[in-house]
Give the backbone structure.
Amino acid sequence: MVVGLGPGEARQLTPRAVRAIEEAQVVVGYKTYLAFIRELIKGKEIISSGMRKEVDRARIALMKAAAGQAVAVVSSGDPGVYGMAGIILELAGDRVAVEVIPGVTAATSAAAVLGAPLMHDFAVISLSDLLTPWETIAKRLEAAADSDFVVVIYNPQSQGRRKQIAAARDILLKYRSQDTPVGIVQNAGRPEEKKRITTLAAMLDEEINMQSTVIVGNSQTKIRHGHMITPRGYVL
C-alpha cells in the first residue's frame, strides 16, 4: 500500500490511511514524515531514509511485499501528487499488487487556510528542477499564466535554489496585474501553520521556503474579509 499522510497531523489522516498503517507489518518512508505518525507505527518494522532515496525505499518496500509482508509506504500529502505512488507502480509491474490510498494534498490544505482560491480551474507546478529541467517548468508557468489558471506553486524555494521563485513571479507578471492576490502558507495543517496574503508585486518580500505552498490568483481572484476567493461564476 502507498499511503497519503496529508499534512501530517493525525486528525487529518483519512480513516482508510489510519487502518492501512495499523494493518502494516512494515512501514517505509522519509524519516521526517515517519515522525508525523510516531504513535501509529510503534512496534512495527520501520525502514526510513533521507531525501533523494525514493527509489531505494521503493525497492526495499517491494522486496518486503513480495516476501509476503504487509507493507505501507507513506508519503506526505497525497502519494499520487509528487509522491511515491508512481515509483512504486512502475517498479512493481505485475509482480506485487499495489493499493494507492489518497491523502489531503498541499494544494487543498493550503487553499483551505486561505479561504477558497481554487474555486475555478487551477494548475499545480513544482519549481524543483532536480528532476525536471527549468526550461520545461518555465514553459508550463507561461502556459498556465497565459490561460488565466490559478497557479499553485510547490517547492518554491530552498537553501540551494533561490532564483526560481523570482523567475516564476516575473513570468506571471507578464500576464497578471501587480495587484493579483497571492497566498503563502507555511506548514499547512500543522501546529506551526502560518499564512500571509499579499500581491504578486510584493510576494518576494515574504518568507518563502520548502515548507511553503504559494497560491497565485487569476484575474478574478479577490480578497474579502481576510479570505482569498476565486469566484466560480455564480450570480450572488
Summary: The domain at 106-229 is CATH 3.30.950.10 (Methyltransferase, Cobalt-precorrin-4 Transmethylase; Domain 2). The CA atoms of residues 10 and 208 lie 26 Å apart. The longest strand covers residues 181-186. The chain has two domains: 2-101, 106-229.
